[in-house]
Design brief:
It contains 4 helices and no strands. By secondary structure, it is an all-alpha fold.
Length: about 100
């Protein structure tokens, strides 16, 4: 059972890797990298479940948090004005 699930996840990771390499834009590459990270977390969680080691779930949670923060960081660096709102750009005109 683990071999079948692992092979399907590895095939999906390979498809994501192809998209990360061939992606026409940065957003496609970031989305593919995020997908690879999510599938890696899934693989670690399944491995922990199949081997009966619940501490693997802690490792998976830490990895998903790192993946999420790195995705936000890459998108923020690529488009620095995306996180600002109209009121914060204009200044503090309201008193």
């Amino acid at each position: 059972m683990f071999i079948a699930v692992s092979s399907v996840i590895l095939i999906a990771i390979a498809v994501g890797l192809v998209r990360a390499i061939r992606g026409p834009s940065l957003y496609d590459r970031v989305l593919a990298a995020n997908m690879i990270g999510t599938l890696t977390v899934l693989m670690v969680a399944i491995l922990g479940f199949m081997t009966g080691r619940p501490e693997f779930l802690d490792i998976a949670l830490v990895y998903v948090l790192i993946s999420f923060v790195s995705t936000l960081a890459v998108l923020r660096v690529h488009n620095p004005g995306a996180g600002t709102t109209a009121s914060s750009v204009k200044g503090s005109g309201e008193q």
